[in-house]
Each structure stands twice: as C-alpha cells, then as structure tokens.
Amino acid sequence: MNAATANSYPIDTLGLVVTVLLVAVAAGISYAMRLGVHRQMLWATVRSLLQLLAMGYIIKFVIERNSPWLAFALIAVMILAAIQITMSRAANIPRDVMPQVFLTLTASVILQISVVTELVIRPHPWYAPAVLVTMTGMLLGNVVSAIAVAMSRFFADMESRRYEIEMLLSLGATPFEAARPSIVASVKMGMIPTIAQLASSGIVLIPGMMAGQVIAGADPLTAAKYQFVVLAVISALTLMADSLIMALVYKVSFTKLDQYRPAA
Amino acid sequence: MRLPRGDRNNTVARMNTHTRLVLSAAHVTCRVPRTVAKAAADGEVTLPTLFRHLHRRGAGAAAAGASDEGGAETLRTLFADLAFSLDAGDIVDLVGPSGAGKSTLLTAIAQLNPHAEAELTLEGTPSTAMSPELWRRQVAYLPQRPTLTGATVREAVLMPFTLRVHRKAADGSSLAERRPDEATLRRTLDVVGCTDIELDRPPQDLSVGQQARVCLLRTLLTAPKVMLADEVDAGLDEENADKVGAILAYAAEHKGMAIVRVRHRSADGRANRTLRLAGGTLTEETGAAAPVPSAAPVPPAAPVPSAAPVPPGTEGSAR
C-alpha cells in the first residue's frame, strides 16, 4: 500500500472543506424538507472527520516507530473501543454479556492476525503496523456490526418466542434446543450485509479499500486481489464471530436450572 | 388444613378405583420455601427483584420499561412452605382465587420457574439427582396457551421426539426409538376423540379448541409420569373443554399418569382430589362433591350436557 507513488492524488485542505460543505448542503436539504436527519448527519460527519484524522496520525506514528509492542497496544485499544461500540449499538441486551463480546472480538482478531495476515499477506516485518492495524480495523468494523445485530435480534426473538420456549422446555428441551430457532435467525440476520457485500462487490460496487488503493495509484489487479482477500477473510471471520457470540451468549437467557428468564 | 412440610405420603381420600395399576405410586412432593414474585395490580406474576433490576437498566425505551416507571408494584411472596403429594392415576384439581399462584406452583413443580425453589421427589428420586430436562420429561407442564411448531399437525405432535432427552439416555447412549409410528399416532388421536384432526393440516389452521387438544396429545404421547395442565380448557367451548377433560381422564386411567389441573370451570366430576391454593396456603378440600371418575375406557366424544354452565371468562389469563 505505497500511497506515495507518482500517480497519487492527495487530499488537501480545500478538498476537506469542499467535502464538509457538501455534507452541509445535504443537511440543509434535510432541514428544509424536515427529514429530521440533519443533526445526526452533521454530528456524524464531524465525528468521522476527527476520528479518521486521529486514526491517521496514530497509525502514522505507530508505523514510524515500527514497534510490535506499540502495534499490539493500539490493537488492544481498538478492541476495547469495539466492545464499547458493540454494547451501545446492540439494543436491549443484558450488560453482563460484555465478557463474551470481549472474548469474541479478541478471538477473531487473533485468528485474523495469526492465520490471515501471517499466512496470506506475510508482511515484513511480521508485525508491520501498516498491515496489522489496518486489517484489524476493517475486521473489527464488520464484526462489531454483525454481532451487535445478531445479539439484538437474538434477545428480541427469544422474547417474542417466550411461549414457544416455555413449551419446549416443558417438554424437556435443553436451553440450546429451545434457543436454536432464535440463534439461527440471529446469525442469518447478522450475516446479511456481509454476504451481500461479498456477492455484489465488483459488479457495480467497488469496495472502499480497492477504490482507495486504485485512487492512491496502486495496480488495479493487485488492489482487486487485496480486496478479495480482505472481503472473504472478513466474511469468514464474521461468520465465526457470529457463531461464537451466539454459542457464548444464548445461555444468558437461562438459569442454572435451565429455566428461561427474559433478558432485557 | 395446611399440609405439613415434607409429608410425602399424604393420600387423602383416594377415590381411584383402578386395581390394574402396576406402577408404584408416583410421588411428587413439593415444598416451596420461598417464592418471590412481583405482583402487579392485576395479580399478574412477572419479574422478581433480581431481574427487575436488570430490566430497569437494560430496557431503555422498550414498552416494558415504560410500564415499569409506574413504580406502584410491590414484591411479595406468593406462597411458602407448601407441601403435597400425588399418586399415579390421581386427577387433582388445583383451585383458588386469581393471582393466588396456581400457575406459579405448577411451573415450580416442573422446575420452570426461576423465582421458585422447591424440593421435589419423583418415585423416591429427588429432582436434584437428574437433569432438569429429564425431570421435565417425566413431570410435564402443559401451558395454557397452545403453541404448535412445524408445518403439519404430525410434525407438531412428533416434535418432542426430536429433542435430546427423548433420543439419548442420561449417560449419552442412544435410547430405543420412542417415537410413535403412524398407526399409533392415528389410534391415539381417535381414542381420545380427535377424529376431527387431520395430521397433514398446518397447525395454524386448527381451531383454538383443536390446538389445545393437539398440545395435550403432544404431551400425552411423550408419556410423562405427571402432567401439570395449566388452564388448558380456558377459553374453550363446552364441547372442546369436555374433550380436554376426557383426554386427561384417559391418561390418568390408562397410562397411570398423575394429573394436576388448574381450572376455572365448575367441577366436571373427573377429579378425585381438589386442592385449594389461597392466601399462600394449600388446603385439601375433603368430601368434594365430585363423583368417582367414570370407569369407561373410551371417553365420550359427544358433548356431555353440563350440569352447571360456567360463565365464560371468570378470570383473566394467569400471566
């Protein structure tokens, strides 16, 4: 990902200002038409600008230091932030699933680094922050939304199935047997955007990472291969994370005596 | 009369006339030392302290959270130190005012109620000596609301046999095939007066009365030792209510099941004992007007004229 090649087009301050102005115009339209999203839109734009710039500076700093400790410290901070985002994004879930979320996110990051980064990309040095941190960021982004959706759906679905669950338990079903329909529905729900993105990429949609690489001057074929690896890996790890979080979390809806208890 | 704690052999006024029973008496001893449940204004039993706390914190804008803000609810113990036992072939009617905790008691016996504690013994084996699933397979709770799964009535009725507790023994070895074959299924349906129910129909197409009977049959086919029927005839017309009663009587008489019924209709003469749960105490109603259960092997499928018509909807749902 050598961005500083001859054909790269860096964004200058004017570019940023024009971008923000465009958002302001869109928000103005929303305000005029009373669509009610202008406030969130502006706030989210400001947030994303600051967060991305901050991330850019941090990654730059970590790359320049080129220290494995610093890279992994940054990844640890990213995991902690991801837990917080997951917990706040998943509506109506019990707070005590936090350890399970931590475990799931950590497991997918470890799997990603050990198997994918080190076997597929094989950077030099092995801890190259440019690869490690960016890959982790992309993975976490996807996993966070998938497991947040899956958990929200799971607890809502269990609640709506409470009579069925009572019936199943009363006939001797184990918690897993009673929860299985909700688990299946939730994993599917969490995976829909990921699978749709995987299947539709390249037809009309040029995913952000490939677009970024090509604009920054990389060979489109290299960018395509990178994009495929990233998408496929993220999809696979997201499915694993989705399954793992369900396996870890469904028991929260049951007592030690395998009784159903409404969670939220 | 308040039954003494731990009295497991309290077999008052057995009216059972069956002598062919080989099964030794099935005892369910239930003592509930501490049941805490939130009783809302309408007597509805919902969340206890522990979970109410969670509820408050996690509910956000959910409707349930909003109703919680009323703040008028109090926590109370529905009942404590109850004890009773029942024997194979018993049909026990559990009666009492709305909100007394009849459903809570049944779910406590089935180990389904997270807010109840109970010491339970089945045929001398304490419930703690087996998995909750194995206990519930033998002590089956039948909820009031009919819930059927699957695409057809056949699938719905055979669903329990897909569960692990029916396929594997406690040690993990495979059990012999318990699933009833097609002929058994049809015969059972006919013998309990369900000739009107086709096995290939989607369960949602059935009438409420038919659904209630199919739910009952589903539990019946799993051959539990104890069946806890929670208002399964509530909201049904006289004909369907009578069929439900007949099915239960059949199960008690021919399968030796011990049956506890929560009912709000007038006594139908099928129960041989009546327990009253009121004000936190359980009383055996002796000298009940109920006649000896009919010994007819096949219950009448035709509607039986009821001696005393019951005003429908004398009580709201139990939860």
Automatic annotation (TrEMBL), chain A:
InterPro entries named among the record's database cross-references: UPF0014_fam (IPR005226)
GO cellular component: plasma membrane
Keywords in alphabetical order: ATP-binding, Membrane, Nucleotide-binding, Transmembrane, Transmembrane helix
Keyword Oxidoreductase carried by entry: no
Protein name as it appears in the record: ABC transporter ATP-binding protein
Segments passing through the bilayer: 14-32, 44-63, 69-89, 101-121, 127-152, 195-216, 228-250
Similarity section: Belongs to the UPF0014 family.
One Gene Ontology term of the molecular function aspect: ATP binding
Source species, domain of life: Bacteria
Localisation per UniProt entry: Membrane
Membrane topology field: Multi-pass membrane protein
Primary localization: membrane
Statement: the UniProt record of this protein carries the keyword Membrane: yes
Family annotation (Pfam families): UPF0014
Automatic annotation (TrEMBL), chain B:
GO molecular function: ATP binding; ATP hydrolysis activity
Region annotation (Disordered) ranges: 278-319
Ranges of residues in domain ABC transporter: 45-304
This protein's record includes keyword Nucleotide-binding: yes
Pro residues compositional bias, start-end: 294-312
InterPro entries to which the protein is assigned, alphabetical: AAA+_ATPase, ABC_transporter-like_ATP-bd, ABC_transporter-like_CS, P-loop_NTPase
Presence of the UniProt keyword 4Fe-4S in the record: no
Keywords of the record: ATP-binding, Nucleotide-binding
Pfam families assigned: ABC_tran
PANTHER family: ABC TRANSPORT PROTEIN ATP-BINDING COMPONENT-RELATED, ABC TRANSPORTER DOMAIN-CONTAINING PROTEIN
Name of the protein in its database record: ABC transporter ATP-binding protein
